[in-house]
Amino acid sequence: MTSVPSASAADASSERRRSRRPARKPWPAWVHLILALVLVAVLRNFIAQSFYVPSGSMIPTLQVGDRMIVPKFGQTIEHGDIVVFDGTETFGGNPAPRFDSAIGKVVSGVGKVFGVDVNERDYVKRVIGMGGDHVVCCDANEAITVNGKALNERYLAPGMKPSMMPFDVVVPEGHLWLMGDNRSNSADSRAHLGDPGGGMVPVSDVIGEPVLRYWPLSRFDRITSTTSVPAADG
Questions:
Q1: Which positions are annotated as active-site residues?
Q2: Which has fewest Cβ within 10 Å: 21, 40, 55, 71?
Q3: Is 62 in contact with 215 (CB distance < 8 Å)?
């Protein structure tokens, strides 16, 4: 007859097996660093990114030094939206790479993997015209019109004219006509009319729409951008 081990004997045997297992070693610091970098890359490339406002071209909506969060998914561009975009090819004049050395090229390549293009020039402006729109400045009442419809640009500072520079453009499909809210001090689509592309920014260059200003704390607030400009009739 085979004897059945008692409960205490089985417990002792299980304890011996556990004691023979090697203790798990903590991951080395470099593994934690790599995981942190991967997490940052995923967040920056696919979730959201923080941007800093370096100039006064969007005053009074955005002030110099404002920091804002820009999601990278689930947004549809509409008339009146504020957008952050990569203007390297359009507004930036397609500059030559700033890192020409071997080490610089390595740094640039690593940066791109983590969503940081050292040659990228980001801008923030407002969408005035979209693909197919006929945008004109200005009508008899000094208002910008989109497809013959005057814009009520309530986000402009009191007394600010919609534009001191006249223009009459048709926006190509897949492109945007962008202007800063500080019309007297904004190098926007108007300033690039004579450049290749005529100041039009491809929709594919848009990084996202800012939704939250988190710094300075005194100006902590949501960023709402679609209430002032009516959609233009096609």
A1: 57, 125
A2: 21
A3: no
